[in-house]
Design goal:
Layout: H1 4-15, E1 19-20, E2 28-30, E3 38-42, E4 72-77, E5 81-88, E6 91-99, H2 106-127, E7 131-136, H3 138-147, E8 152-154, H4 160-169, H5 180-183, H6 194-205, E9 210-214, E10 218-219, E11 230-233, E12 242-248, E13 251-259, H7 264-280
Parallel strand pairs: 4-7, 7-8
Antiparallel strand pairs: 1-2, 2-3, 3-6, 4-5, 5-6, 9-13, 10-13, 11-12, 12-13
Helix pairs in contact: 2-3
Length: about 280
Amino acid sequence: MRSKRLRREIDDLAAQGRIEDGTRDRPVAVCRKRARFTSGVRIAAMECRHCASPLEKPGDFCLVCREANADAVVLDVARDRTTMTMLEDDDVVGETTITTVPEDGDEAEVVELRNYAGLIADEIRRKRPEEVYASGDREVVRAVRAELHYPFYRVDGDDPVEAVRKRRGDRALDVVETPPAEKIGGSHTTLIGGRTGMRAIQTVAGHPHVKKVIPGPIDAGGKGSQSGLRAKVTRADDGGNVRLLLRDGSSVQENRIVTTARDREMGERVREDLNDVLSEEEFQ
């Protein structure tokens, strides 16, 4: 049973058209900002856990006391539907469903995908989380990642929320706030692949657990390839650092990646993240 205060809040939201209260025990808030898109929110705590000020949506950042009410957001992404779960430690504090109607045709599809990713990103920004995790459709995930500046990780499995809980239960890695361009250095300044090679390097340098990227010498004696520039991160060493192999035609360049991992096991986690990002950016 709900308290009288919460019942009144739900009734007020329903009167404003922000709640479709077809079932009184499981109301759904609907965002009507954009045509062809809906954003339904499962109601949880509608007030700030720090100062008890009312929140428009569960897990929102509180603009009264300037405190966050969710420290992580988990996305379960499909091409036409995304479920966004907000976590505070291991507790679920809210869940939002964002849907779209995929368009046909090159231009219409591009616009629709951009708007869909933008709506997801807008919902995430409302929470101001410390981390964002995503599983599912790579095209949509890539578009959402491009909209955000939070530490962003890919997770796999049938239950992404449980996968995130398990991952967050492991030892945390330090986050590096340095801009990607400032992480790149060393005695070798030439990169194979020109601008494409630099984009691959900056993609890796943008990862929150990468401290530094040190380009290595170029070996022009490798096996030729007609598939364009390819990038792959190799297995971690005992100190948790990895290497990025760039291959373009017959040229190969091995680049050292210094991470915040402290051992091989944690380095392997970073390696998997980096290869996921490179795959999403179509370098693999």
